[in-house]
Each structure stands twice: as C-alpha cells, then as structure tokens.
Design brief:
With 281 residues, the chain is mostly helical. It is built from 14 helices and no strands. It is globular, with a radius of gyration of 17 Å.
Length: 281
C-alpha cells in the first residue's frame, strides 16, 4: 500500500458543521463555539467545554445525542487548535469513542458492521441509513472517524478504514446532502483529492464535491473554498482558481451564524495560502 496522508485540516471541517441541536447542553456548547467570531476565545475556553462534555457524557451513557455532541466538541477542538501529534491522538480517540458509542446506540446494525469487511459495512449503510436523522447520526460519527484516522496518518491499520469513511459520507449525501451545510461533500472533496487514483482518488470528482458544498451553503461556507483552493487548485496547478477562491474568502463577511468560527479560521488560512502562493506555483 502506498503511504497516504489525510490532511490535518480535515479535522477543522468539524467547525463547519451547523448546529444539529443534539445533546441538550452539550449541543448548545457546540453551537456557541461555532458562532464565536474570535478563534482565540474558543482556543482558550474550549478545554473547560471539553471537561463539561465529559461530565455530561459520563452522566448520560445511554443518550446518543449527548455522546455525539461530546464527539463533535472534541473533534472540532483537536482539528482547529491542536498541533501536537500525541495530544491530537488522545483527543481524537475520545472523539471517536464518543461518536462510536452514539452511533451504536442509534444504529446497532451499522455498529455491528464497523469492524467487519467493507462489503458488509457498505450493505449495512444501504439497508439501515435511509432517513435524515439516521444520515445526521452517520455524519457525526464519520466526521469523528475521519479525524481519528488523520491523527494516525502513519498507521496503515487506521488508513485501511478510509474506504469505510468514504462510503459513510457517500451514504449521507445519498440520503440528505444538505446536512451541515453540505459538508459531507467537503469531506469527500478532501479525501478524493488526496488519495492516489489507484486507491480511489479522483481530482475531478473532488472538484465536483467542493463546488457542491459551496452551492449548498449559498457561498457562506468559506472553509470549503479554502479547502478547494488548497487541495484541488494547488493539486492541478490552477493559480487563477486558487487566488480567486482565496480572495473571495477574504472579501466575504465571515459572520454567518453557526459558520462564523469556521469562516474566521478560513480567512486566516486563506491569508497563509496566498502568502505562500508564489513559492508554490
């Protein structure tokens, strides 16, 4: 198997997610983070949120919504603000543990197939994920799963799960493509742009997914544009597309409800990409 890396920024897609009103207080914490316009406030204050999410999840072990909300908080914080590899692995493990527990509480058949062979998992998705609520649960779990894999990009056993994660996002799209501002498309765009073609990658399919995510968010999803520039435009050496997308991000109003924090992070990354563009192209 060729070495593959799932880009670290894929974890930050968790901040793109709109509030799904899950887990009571834990869900409210996630929404508060997503609506914050100052990333430094979230960076400094989020650890307290994580401790609270742990408490809520421990007190409600059989409540899927609380488990999934805790997973979202851990995954988003790890992706947006943690660079240390060892720490990121710890945080994404907690995110995946919570997400898996929430998934298993709601969809036992899919849970049973998680560790099995790919065809059985794909069939379980087709048979048991056909409602919006089910797609929403699957999306939350797949997002945390993708972050867990990214934090273990040098672990072939973890990378072997990528086809299952891709299948999960594809099922979400098939059932409810608009969930979380269309961000299942964003995840797929990153995955397809970064994986070698021999292992299922496809730059042109990635482009289609990025554009669809932008369309579904009515252009408000600025991180989708940043990822489109970084993982597609740079891949195909399209400087014109690259710069146009990033300037659109910088010209846009970042205040967009539960996309606000993601948009502020996107603007930071857009500036970094533009600053390095001459060296890259």
């Amino acid at each position: 198997m060729n070495r593959m890396r799932v880009p670290g920024v894929i974890l930050a897609v968790s901040f793109l997610a709109g509030c799904v009103n899950v887990g009571g207080l834990a869900g409210d914490l996630g929404e508060s983070m997503a609506r914050q316009s100052d990333p430094a406030v979230v960076r400094d204050g989020a650890p307290a949120y994580l401790i609270m999410a742990d408490t809520l999840a421990r007190d409600a072990p059989d409540d899927a919504a609380t488990q999934l909300a805790a997973a979202r908080l851990y995954s988003a914080y790890a992706g947006g603000f943690v660079d240390d590899t060892a720490r990121k692995r710890v945080l994404t493990q907690k995110a995946w543990d919570y997400a898996r527990r929430g998934l298993c509480l709601r969809m036992s058949a899919v849970c049973t197939a998680l560790d099995g062979r790919f065809p059985a998992f794909r069939d379980a998705l087709a048979e048991h994920v056909d409602e919006r609520d089910e797609a929403q649960t699957l999306y939350r779990a797949a997002s945390a799963w993708a972050g867990w894999i990214q934090a273990r990009a040098d672990d072939y056993a973890a990378l072997a799960d990528l086809p299952k994660v891709q299948a999960a996002f594809e099922r979400v799209i098939a059932v409810a493509p608009g969930i979380d501002h269309g961000n299942a498309h964003t995840y797929l765009g990153v995955l397809l742009a970064q994986r070698p073609q021999a292992l299922g990658g496809s730059p042109e399919e990635a482009r289609t997914h990025f554009e669809r995510a932008i369309e579904l968010s009515d252009g408000r999803n600025l991180m989708a544009k940043v990822l489109y520039a970084k993982y597609y435009a740079r891949l195909v050496f399209d400087r014109q597309l690259h710069d146009r997308l990033l300037h659109e991000v910088l010209d846009a109003d970042p205040e967009a409800g539960d996309l606000t924090l993601s948009n502020e992070l996107a603007r930071q990354r857009a500036r970094e990409l533009l600053a390095s563009a001459d060296d890259y192209f």
